[in-house]
């Protein structure tokens, strides 16, 4: 069959949209209009720009008087380009554009952040932000009045180039200085803010991998803080140790990068999320970031209001928290578990800057919102200034009632001191500290994390050290200091806990779970099939709770005589404990009859949505049925899903209704869907299994859906799913199903037509051959 005929027979709605979308993109010249994307090139390149634009090659902002583009540019070496269209009156037309073309640069394993900014803004001897300037006080080591303490911002073009060479972001952003005392370093930190006015209101790329945010508005490009010219990785390493979901402690995602500034190599940095109200709003689904009260240090207001926190501190100072009533009141005002885990992490790290250097927040518009803390700036931990810091009794340091003005003044230890007078909080602090010494803070786990971070930097470190006159020997000394701390710290911290709390002797405990569930220890970490083996204290009983996964039910304990799934285990007896929780499958009568059939994780107009189909022969009432993505859960209201019918759930029903007029209003879905894929499940009222899929759509630009090709097929088999560009068919049979019916019908007519052609050809041949 001719290719053109084959193309015409494809499904029009999806094939045609994909085809014409690609054609329109090519014809209309999407993007900046430059013929080459900014990025890495092995040798010289020729670059063309839109006719008539004005451009610069030194990083400065183009004006109507800049060079006028008249012919292709030959790029022989690394070049920074900025260009802008202007009207006849010299007014800018549209957003500015630019790019860093890295030609013949050394290879790297790091994401590249290429920044173009007016050179005078950073290096002018009077006004430049990278110089002290005439206002600096040379007699004070902090140099107050220096230009780098500015809070102003300035436009800068930014390219983010992935390790595979893809340019994943190219736009103008707002650039500003960042950091505290680290501004004194020669290699200075800065932050970037995406702005709609410049053409990109967010950095829309999963810069921090699949476990990080899919996009963000603000980024910090950090020089390592106090760890500069030492290990270069402490802060990212330590915050990255909080892997277990039980932490429930916000912290910045991190990724090492290399920076080029106006085409010049500027060294290794760490890309971080920026802690501000938008960071909190994104993490906690808060609609209006202006409702957030964000504080730092001793009641310094970064955003919002102070009053509620001041009332909390006044109450704590005036009341006996060892008593149940006042302690319950404090639990209503602050997230005690969140604060406790912050203290556990900072105590393990021996972060000597943790007393006053803190960030905490609440959602002022939510009456149920409580104060929560953010793990932040921990690079003074893990022996930054002392090779034997693993020996330090940081627990005593953080409970000192009469410490100096810095680093542990009395106000900074007040909450921990008062909370530890409560037996419930004290037991949680001790047992959870031990939980993490057995898991996230176990020497093998931390050592593996160190080696992973070192491997990320090793190839690029010689260039960094040469750029900023660092010492490889000094770098490796600090890496060894990290390793020593990781190996030795648990032993010393365990003894500090034992002594401080008169905790008694060690007790060996092993806890595991059979398939279909987990055991939660101390309302904290969860033991699965591999189990958790550790040593707890005789004077602190541990709490166990068997939790069945969706589709399973608790069956019973091995190693315990208890029948209840929740147990408090007294450890006075010295014998070792070996405990296992068992579970059995729980399957709904309609399993695999109510199924997912279409998923839309990428619709600019409608938002995320998904479709469920009833392929049973009966109407089903879905009251208390559950839809889950493993993290979030929706419990369905009382509604009937008829036999053969469809139910659509939308993250934004208002946008969905506007995008699909005429369709019934969908049910609200309280969570979004990942473009990269995830696990979705349907469960009955008691958690009985109904349907589950691991969807993983092919990478597709623009809007697309992931659709089951036929509702009768096994929807758990990825072979029967297809990724299709376009808006999808919510609440209706999927396009591939319709296409199959169309093709079946069209094949019939094509065969008839082809048969007639053959018959006519045979008749014509006989006529021709029968002539004399």
Automatic annotation (TrEMBL):
TM segment ranges: 748-768
What superkingdom does the record give?
Answer: Bacteria
Q: Where is the GH29D-like beta-sandwich domain?
A: 37-91
User: Per its record, what are the GO molecular function terms?
Assistant: kinase activity
Q: Does the keyword Transferase apply?
A: yes
**Which of UniProt's keywords are assigned here?**
Kinase, Membrane, Transferase, Transmembrane, Transmembrane helix
The protein in question is named CotH kinase family protein
């Amino acid at each position: 069959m001719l290719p053109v005929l084959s193309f015409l027979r494809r499904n029009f709605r999806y094939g045609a949209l994909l085809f014409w979308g690609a054609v329109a993109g090519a014809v209309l010249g999407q993007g900046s209009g430059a013929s080459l994307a900014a990025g890495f090139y092995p040798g010289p390149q020729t670059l063309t720009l839109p006719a008539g634009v004005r451009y610069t090659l030194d990083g400065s902002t183009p004006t109507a008087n800049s060079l006028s583009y008249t012919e292709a540019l030959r790029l022989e070496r690394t070049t920074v380009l900025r260009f802008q269209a202007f009207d006849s009156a010299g007014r800018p037309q549209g957003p500015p554009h630019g790019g860093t073309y890295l030609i013949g640069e050394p290879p790297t394993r790091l994401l590249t952040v290429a920044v173009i900014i007016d050179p005078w803004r950073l290096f002018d001897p009077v006004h430049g932000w990278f110089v002290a300037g005439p206002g600096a006080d040379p007699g004070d080591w902090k140099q107050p009045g220096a230009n780098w303490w500015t809070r102003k911002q300035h436009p800068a073009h930014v390219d983010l180039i992935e390790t595979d060479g893809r340019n994943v972001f190219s736009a103008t952003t707002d650039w500003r200085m960042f950091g505290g005392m680290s501004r004194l370093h020669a290699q200075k930190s800065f932050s970037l803010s995406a702005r709609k006015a410049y053409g990109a209101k967010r950095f829309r790329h999963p810069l921090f991998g699949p476990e990080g945010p899919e996009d963000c508005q603000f980024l910090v490009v950090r020089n390592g803080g106090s760890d500069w010219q030492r290990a270069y990785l402490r802060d990212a390493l330590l915050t990255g140790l909080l892997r277990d979901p039980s932490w429930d402690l916000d912290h910045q995602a991190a990724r090492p990068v290399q920076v080029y500034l106006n085409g010049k190599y500027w060294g290794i940095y760490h890309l971080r999320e920026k802690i501000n109200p938008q960071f909190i709003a994104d993490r906690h689904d808060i609609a209006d970031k202006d409702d957030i009260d964000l504080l730092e240090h001793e009641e310094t207001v970064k955003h919002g209001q102070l009053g509620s926190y001041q009332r909390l501190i006044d109450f704590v100072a005036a009341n006996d928290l060892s008593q149940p009533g006042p302690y319950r009141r404090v639990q209503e005002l602050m997230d005690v578990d969140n604060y406790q885990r912050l203290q556990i992490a900072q105590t393990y790290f021996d972060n000597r800057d943790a007393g006053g250097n803190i960030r905490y927040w609440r959602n002022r518009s939510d009456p149920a919102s409580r104060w929560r803390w953010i793990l932040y700036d921990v690079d003074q931990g893990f022996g930054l200034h002392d090779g034997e810091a693993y020996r330090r009794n940081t627990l005593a340091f953080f409970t000192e009632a009469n410490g100096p003005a810095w680093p542990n003044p009395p106000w900074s230890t007040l909450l921990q001191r008062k909370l530890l007078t409560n037996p419930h909080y004290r037991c949680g602090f001790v047992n959870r500290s031990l939980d993490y010494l057995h898991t996230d803070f176990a020497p093998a786990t931390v050592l593996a994390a160190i080696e992973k971070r070192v491997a990320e930097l090793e190839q690029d470190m010689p260039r960094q050290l040469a750029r900023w006159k660092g010492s490889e020997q000094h770098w490796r000394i600090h890496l060894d200091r990290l390793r020593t701390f990781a190996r030795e710290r648990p032993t010393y911290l365990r003894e500090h806990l034992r002594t401080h709390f008169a905790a008694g002797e060690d007790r060996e405990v092993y806890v595991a779970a059979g398939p279909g569930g987990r055991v939660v220890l101390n309302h904290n970490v969860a033991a699965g099939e591999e189990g958790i083996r550790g040593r707890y204290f005789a004077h602190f009983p541990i709490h166990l709770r068997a939790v069945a996964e969706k589709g399973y039910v608790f069956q019973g304990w091995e190693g315990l005589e208890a029948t209840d799934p929740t147990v408090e285990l007294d450890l006075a007896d010295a014998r070792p404990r070996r405990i296992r929780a068992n579970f059995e499958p729980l399957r709904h009568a309609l399993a695999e009859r109510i199924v997912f059939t279409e998923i839309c994780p990428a619709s600019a107009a409608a938002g995320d949505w998904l479709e469920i189909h009833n392929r049973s022969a009966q109407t089903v009432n879905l009251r208390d049925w559950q839809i889950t993505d493993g993290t979030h859960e929706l419990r369905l209201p009382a509604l009937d899903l008829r036999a053969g019918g469809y139910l659509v759930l939308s993250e934004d029903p208002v946008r969905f209704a506007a995008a699909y007029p005429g369709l019934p209003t969908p049910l609200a879905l309280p969570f979004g869907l990942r473009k990269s894929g995830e696990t979705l499940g349907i469960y009955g009222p008691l958690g009985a299994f109904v349907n589950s899929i691991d969807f993983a759509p092919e990478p597709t630009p623009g809007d697309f859906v992931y659709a089951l090709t036929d509702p009768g097929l096994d929807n758990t088999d990825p072979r029967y799913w297809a990724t299709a560009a376009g808006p999808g068919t919510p609440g209706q049979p999927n396009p591939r199903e319709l296409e199959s019916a169309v093709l079946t019908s069209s094949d019939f007519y094509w065969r008839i037509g082809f048969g007639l052609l053959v018959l006519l050809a045979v008749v014509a041949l006989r006529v021709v051959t029968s002539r004399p």
